[in-house]
Amino acid sequence: MRRSGQRGQDGVVTMHDIAARAAVSQTTVSFVLNGRMDRANISPETRERVLTAARELGYQRNHIARAMVTGRSHILSVLAPPEVNENQARILAGAHEAANQNDYLLKVQHLSGGTIDEEAIVRCLEWRLEGAILVGLEESMLDELYARLDAWRVPIVTVDNSRRYEHSLHVTSDNDSGIRQAVEHLLGLGHRRIAFLGGRPSVLSLEREQSFRRYLDGAGIAVQEPWVRQSSWSDAAVLRDGAAAILDAPIGGPTAVVCASDAAAMVVLREARARGLRTPADLSVTGFTNSALSAFVDPPLTTVEQPFYQMGHTAALHLVERAESSEPAPPGREPVQLPTRLVVRESTARCP
Asked: Deepest in the core among 66, 103, 305, 348, taking most CB within 10 A?
C-alpha cells in the first residue's frame, strides 16, 4: 500500500497523491489546479496548501490525459510569415506569456508565399485549436484563412496590420491617437508645411493617412497632395522613392514629415542628409513604432511607441477567455485599441 502523499509506483504524481499530502479531497485539488476555485468555496489557505503539496511532490500536469477527458486541447496557434520582424516578435512574446500564464500551449506556424499551406490548415484541425492569432499576413491570405478557420468555428484574433472580420476580434494600437500626437507635436513647434510618408497602402497605413489629413484639416492647414505618399513597410527602394518624391516636390519641400513607420522615418533622414538638409534644423521627422534602433539613429528619432507585447498578450488572453467561457461569442466586437505614446527625441525641433 502506498503511504500518504508519496508518488505512485510508476513515479507519476496524481491528484490523489496531492490530496493525501494536503489532506483535502481530490475534487478540491482538481478545482485548485484547474483554476476553478470560483466553483467551490475554497479558502486561500486551502489553495496554498494544495499548491505547496503539488510543488513538493513534483506534480506535472498531463495535457494529453486532460484533453481526452475534457475534449479540449488547450492549444493556441499563431499564423505568421516566415520572416518575423521586430514588431511581430514582440507580439509573439506577449501571446506566449499570456498562453503560458493560463497553462495553454502556443504553437507558431509560418506561412510562406501568397497561398495557404494546406498542411497548416490540417494541423489546425488536428490540434483542435482553441483559437488562432493571425499576424503580419497579406490581405488575400488573411481572407482565405479567416474563411477556412471560421467555417470550422475556430476563434480568430487578427493583430495590428490586418483586416477586421465579422466573427473575430481585432487587436491594434490606437493609431489615430498616435498620429494626432505626432501632428500636434509638430504644430506646437511651429510647423505648417507638414508631409506624410506611409507604408504599404494597406488598411493600417491608409488609416494613418486619414488621421493625418483630419488633424491637419482640424488645425486649418491645407494638405499638400505632393507631400502625401504611400510606399512600403520594408522595401528600401520603394521607401526611398517615396521620400524623394516628397523632398523634391515641385511645390518645394516641407519643414516636417510624419512617417507611418520608423523605417520610413529613417529613410527620410538619409535622403534629407543626401540633399544637404540638416535634421532637425531644416527638417523635423517623426516615426511610428519606437523600434529598437530608433534611439540610435542620427539624430535619435522622435516616434510613436506601439505596445506590441501588450497587443499579443491581449490577443492570446481573449482566446483563452473564449475557450474557458460557456457563453456564445458576442457578434461584431469592436476592435481593442491599446494606447500609444509619443517619445520625443532629437529629430524634431522648432520650425526654421
From this structure: 348
Count CB-CB contacts under 10 A for residue 51. 16
Beta-sheet strands, E only, within the chain: 75-80, 105-110, 131-135, 156-159, 168-173, 194-197, 228-229, 256-259, 284-289, 302-305, 336-338, 341-343
Same domain, 76 and 55: no
User: 109 and 120: one domain?
Assistant: yes
The upper half-sphere exposure of residue 310, i.e. CA atoms within 13 Å in the direction of its Cβ, equals 11
The predicted model gives 286-299 an average pLDDT of 96
Half-sphere exposure of 190 (CA within 13 A, CB side): 8
pLDDT surpassing 60 at residue 165: yes
Residue 196 lies in a domain: yes
4 domain-assigned: no
Coil, strand or helix at 205: helix
Q: What is the pLDDT of residue 296?
A: 96
179 and 302 belong to one structural domain = yes
**How many domains in the chain?**
3
User: What's phi and psi for 252, nearest 5 deg?
Assistant: 95, 170
Give whole-number Cα distances, 350 to 2, 191, 246, 346, in Å: 79, 7, 20, 11
Question: Is 144 in the same domain as 190?
Answer: no
Closest among 106, 158, 114 to 136, alpha carbons compared: 158
Which CATH number fits the domain that encloses residue 300? Answer: 3.40.50.2300
Measured between alpha carbons, how far is 265 from 301 in angstroms, rounded to an integer?
Answer: 8
Q: At 46, which CATH number?
A: 1.10.260
pLDDT at position 248 over 50 = yes
Task: Please check whether residue 197 lies inside any domain of the structure.
Answer: yes
Nearest CA to 194 out of 217, 216, 220 is that of 216
Is the confidence at residue 133, as pLDDT, over 50? yes
pLDDT surpassing 80 at residue 217: yes
Average pLDDT score over residue span 132-139: 88
